[in-house]
Each structure stands twice: as structure tokens, then as C-alpha cells.
Amino acid sequence: MLGCPRGWFFRVALTSAFLLRPEQHSRLPVARLAPRARSQAPGSLRCSLGYLKVEMTESTNVSLKRGSVAIEDDDRVASAEEAKRQKVSECCSATGQDGRENSSLPSSEKVPGPPETAGQGKKTSEVPSEEEEEEDGLSEEGEEEEEVESFADMMKHGLSELDVGISKFVSSHQGFSGILKERYSDFVVHEIGRDGRISHLSDLSVPVDEEDPSEDVFTVLTAEEKQRLEELQLFKNKETSVAIEVIEDTKEKRTIIHQAIKSLFPGLETKTEDREGKKYIVAYHAAGKKALANPRKHSWPKSRGSYCHFVLYKENKDTMDAINLLSKYLRVKPNIFSYMGTKDKRAITVQEIAVLKITAQRLAHLNKCLMNFKLGNFSYQKNPLKLGELQGNHFTVVLRNITGTDNQVEQAMNSLKEIGFINYYGMQRFGTTAVPTYQVGRAILQNSWAEVMDLILKPRSGAEKGYLVKCREEWAKTKDPAAALRKLPVKRCVEGQLLRGLSKYGMKNIVSAFGIIPRNNRLMYIHSYQSYVWNNMVSKRIDEYGLKPVPGDLVLKGATATFIEEDDVNNYSIHDVVMPLPGFDVIYPKHKISEAYREMLTADNLDIDNMRHKIRDYSLSGAYRKIIIRPQNVSWEVVAYDDPKIPLFNTDVDNLEGKPPPVFASEGKYRALKMDFSLPPSTYATMAIREVLKMDTSIKNQTQLNTTWLR
């Protein structure tokens, strides 16, 4: 946390709670803060990046009043984090980890990592390999100053909601102000599974299995033995086997060593040998290098399901980062994990994960080693999870220090429950920098590969990490991908991956160079463009026809889209109407909005009648999306409280630890709105909050309203 002297305060936008990384907050210097207004009573300053205040207009207009954030130095938070780090370090030492910080994680959230994996620590003079161990760029002081000075610029040059087509509200209630705390526990997401049940972490116990090894497997091997076994497992040297002497030669001791090696180092097989009157356990490769990619089939009990399903509770980590971290600790490849949906970073999230042939015991052991993670509710099942199988997500959101009257809150929440909100793609879909992701997607669809490269690599307005600024400057000056890449301590970012591709394939083969970026990341750009078109078209549709179905609108019958006919209009409501994301396998409404689609794509040099691309991955089939979403399981409560730092409800971990739920007084200094609601997949809770508060969620709009306080 950033220390802040009395007499200074700082104002910033609500959207930073969703869109800014923690390290960007912590780097705000005192020198950038505005002097406290003279009318403020001495000692009344609250200094904390803990919460953000956004005051809303009292009409349906998009404009708002100033928002604010206070900054506070909380020694207790710092000491608690230090205690956590110490605990993790001790735990990992006990289990043979070397206690190093995992440098593939952002610097603000590093945790002790597992031993280096294959290829790590090896440098090449030009282009690092993808497996190379990378630092996440602990910026030097000069770089930090550079970032800080452009913090306001980053917000100023960001997108506004109007830039991405978000312009309408569905309800007529008065907006009011509220605070969405920086505290992660004020924004909690629980996955809704295939069976319609909301996922909760409620049980940390391990299923009883007679064939599971004992807890001794985690301590029986020394750190040196683990290092030798890992080097053997990852083919780091020319040894074909590793022999471990059995000091206390008993059958039980030998069994534990066998189990430890097979459990902790997948791909290794073991045997017992007598050498000069001493017993040795010899570890060797059972199936060559393929053993690393595929868990050993013969070592898994046939009576047990091949997949261990578990509930993952995580804080401040997106799903892929979490899986990458789990795979490193387990020494397996990430592709043996499966899940139904990805969850955003900036929240507490609870979801189901499945992993192939890893025991619940090994997974549960990670609870002792990882911060901000908990694994539980283990079960063995025959099948993995599949993307898209979830029914949705349940959100618990707290808006603090609300200014709305009980009647205003009642109107807003009843409107959300009964009418819903426009199903816009939220601001997160389009990026936070001066180069929106939809612009890159449009260039891809136009087959303008030089523009794609330029948009990703060119210098841009706004704040970025110092090393990214230097990388972009080097690229603009030299157009030398290897030279620009050397400016990046983080090679796995999109810029680093593209530069690596350009170094490998050359400037005349940008398509192949771009292909080095993971497929999901590449498709994100064109999906962002589809979302950009959809948002704009939905705003036009509501502006033209309002919130009622009209002839020519589209509805779904099963998976097929059909037109609403004149004599059929009364059989539908606005909640049935869908709009297409542009593609080659969709139809468009039979009214003015169809021509609006055509005009928009034509203006972008795209042919709405031919959305197939020369490269199959970038061909857009299209899809349909409901224009109005009515949340399910909506409930709310207004509570009074005095301490702005106390949690206002328990998380799953709180409940597991037996913490009593918070007790609220009938009156207090502040009032908070606690909201619960469920949404289908691919809908944005921020858009629901926007409708309740009549809030513009863009960074740019918030900054323009706060420039007085940023000077």
C-alpha cells in the first residue's frame, strides 16, 4: 500500500477497480496528489486505495459527477502479506521447493515457485525460446517515474463507452452514487455448473482411497534428491537413471520412496536394486520424452475415474494464470486441466476444474503452499469438463457508501429484476490503452497485416510499463524485432510473442509471425471487432424501435434464428429478441438495422456478404446474442456500517474457517447496497451495475470529469 501524508488526497474513476492492475495503483506518488481543500477538517483525511466513489447523475444521461478515491497506509495489510509470504516460503521449503520467487508472475503478486523447468535459465543472443524463464520487469525507479507521470494520460486516452457503441439505458429510475471497494471480497463470482448448482468451496477433505500414497511422500526425499530427479525427469542432463540409497531399509520405507518418485515426478518409473550390500531405489524413464506429455496410464487404479474434479477458489488471478501456476507446482503440462469457463482476474472467483490423473491428495497439498488459492470438494469422475458447459455465473457485489434513498434503491433494483439491462459487451472487451483491440481485429479481417503489426507495436499515448515504452521506441526507430525484443524482460506478452515471430519468420511473413501468438489471443482481436459492431447496432436498434419487438426482428427457435412476422409480434417480448454478431452463417434483421450493419462494415472496407477469410481461423461464422438480459436470483439488501474496511459478507473461505457473519447496526455512518444476481455466460456484471447506478464505466469519461483533481 502507498503511504500518504495528511493533507493530500486523490480522485480517480470507478473503472480502475475493474481495469487497472494493483501495481499501477501502488506506484502513484505523493507528488501527484492534489492538496487537501482548506475547508477539510484537519485529520479527516482517509488515505487508502481501498475504495472508489462514483457519483451518478439524477437522470438517464451518460454524464456523471466527480468520483473519488481515498488513499490509506495500512501497516496491518503489509504485515499480513509478509506473514503469508513467510508461511509459503516455509511450506515450499518443507516440500522441496527452492523458495525462489516465480518470476513469470507480475511483480506485485509473486509467490515462491517450483524448481526451474526445461529450458529455463538459458539465454540466447537474439530470440529467447518460449520456455525461457522470464522476469516480469521490476522496473527501475526512473521507469516508475515515467509510468507515474503518464497515469492520467492512460486514463485520458482510453476509450469512452460511446467509442464502443454503449449509449442507452433501459430504465427511467434516478441514478445514485456508490463505492465499489478495491477489496476483492466486494466482487465475488461463483460459477453455475451443468446441473444448475452454484459452485461453492465447502469441503477441503480428500476422498478416502486405499491406493493413495501417505503424506510421507512429500517429505521422504531430500532437496538434493528432488533436484536430481527433476533433472532426470526433464532430460536436463545425460543421466539415464538416478539411484537413491535407502538409509533405513524397511519395506515400508522403500514403498514410500517408490510412491514419492512416481507421484512427484510423472514419467519416471522405479525399481529396487542391491548394490554392494545396500538397497537403492533406481528411477528411470519409462517411455522416453513422451512420458512427460502423458501421465502414466499403468499407475492409475482402473476403478478410479481418470479425472479429479475440484472447486478452485482464487483471488486476483485469472483462470489461465491459475492453471499455469498449478501446473508448475505439479510438474505437469497445463493442457491436462479442463474447465467450463474462464474467470476474470479482479475478483474472488469460485469455479470447477478437472485434471487428468492427478490425485486429490497431491492437489490438496497445494493448499499449504499457495497464497490466495484454495482447492477442495474433490471427486473422481470419468470425463473432463468442456468449455461452455456452464449455465452462467452468480455475482455478489457490494456498492458502499451509497447516496440513494431507500426508495431510489428499490426502484433501481426492481427495474434490474423485472426489465434487466442492455446486454452490451463491457469495456473490458476492448482493452484499456489508446489502441483498442477491435482496431487490430478489423485490420486482421481486412487482411492488412502491416497495419496489424503496426497497431500492436507502435508507440502509443498513455501509461505503460517502462520496458514496453522502450520496446516500442526501439521498434519505431529501428524496425529490428530482435533489438526491440531485448528491451522486454517479459517475453510472453503479445508484443514479445509478435517480435519473436518477426525474428523467426522475417518482416515479409507477418502472417506466420502473428501466428506465434496463442490462438485464443489472436481470436480475441476479431471477436472484439464483432462485439464493437454488435454494441453499435444494438444501440441503433433501441434508438430506432425502442424496447418492444417489431416485425423483422430476430428470435431464436432452438438454435435457428427466424424473423418476427407482423401477425406474430404479440407472441414475443423484447427479452426474446436477438441480434447477430457479423459472420457468414447468420441472417440479419428485416428492417432498417440490416442496412446499418451493411453500412458499418462497408465503411470498414469489409464485405458483409463474404465474411470468410483466406486464413480459416479468421473466418467469422457469426452468432446471435440477446439484446436485453434479465438477471435471475436477484436479491438485495441495504446495510449500515461504520468501518469502511470491514467485509460486509463472508466468503467461502471465511465460512470454512468458521468466521461469524458480520453483524450490522440499525444505523451507521455509511450505507451499502449488497446485490446478488445470476447471469448467463458471456454477459457482463459491470453492465448490470451500470444500469443500476446509471454509471458510465469508461476510464476516459471518468478522467475527464476528474481532471481538476488530477492536476
Automatic annotation (TrEMBL):
Signal sequence range: none
Limits of the TRUD domain: 420-630
Region (Disordered): 80-150
Listed name of the protein: TRUD domain-containing protein
Bias kind Acidic residues: ranges: 128-150
SUPFAM superfamilies: Pseudouridine synthase
Bias (Polar residues) ranges: 92-107
Catalytic activity annotation: a uridine in tRNA = a pseudouridine in tRNA; a uridine in mRNA = a pseudouridine in mRNA
